[in-house]
Amino acid sequence: MWCSRAQSLTEKSRAMKQLPGNIKVLYFASGSLEPYVEIITVKDPKHRLSLCSSLDSEAEEPEYQGDVDSVLPVLSDHSLLLDDHHLQRLAAHMPARTQGYPWQLVYSTAVHGSSLKTLYRNMAGLDSPVLLVIKDMDKKVFGAFSSDPFRVSKYCYGTGETFLFSFNPDFQAYRWSGDNSYFVNGNWQSLQIGGGGGRFALWLDADLYHGASFSCPTFHNAPLSTQEDFIVQDLEVWTVHS
């Protein structure tokens, strides 16, 4: 009985015209060659940009990297550090929840002065990811995307969405390795991103003037700055404005 039904279904399928790839046959009505079908909408994979799909170097970025203009972050304020080149590279690594929203400048050394305390104060009450961008005295641009706004805390905070980046001038991104969860830690004396073995991926002092960057287990990153110890020329922090 089942064999005869299967044979009948096969014959009806052969009798139909070739269906498009987005149409799925559900069943045939009795005595009919016309099937009941379901139309399946498949989103263009070029728009599926997320942190999980990103790679660690510009040379190995997804094939759709050149088509990310539709999801480029829109800056609601002028940036001294970011241009379309930077945004295009960063866009493919941003988590999907940030796409489609403008980015607002929440802190800038050029506007607010060099003070970690002011940086924390400007982020009080925020509940959205932030993008930290630094230019050192060697004119190198680098930074970090944090899943959580920077704040003073006794414990590390953040999620695996957090990643590091640098332009040297080629773009490099360093995602969470899974080795530990030392994403971000902030106190009144310093801001630390990544860690393990007494070394931080990115460290900034209370004046946001001296910084340091080392390889660390959290991201398995190379040092972000030209020199492990660096001087900050400009610093900006952006947040999603939804």
Automatic annotation (TrEMBL):
Record domain TLDc: where: 80-241
SMART domains: TLDc (SM00584)
InterPro entries to which the protein is assigned, alphabetical: TLDc_dom
UniProt GO cellular component terms: nucleus
GO biological process, alphabetically ordered: regulation of transcription by RNA polymerase II; response to oxidative stress
Protein name, per record: Nuclear receptor coactivator 7a
The organism of origin for this protein: Amphiprion percula
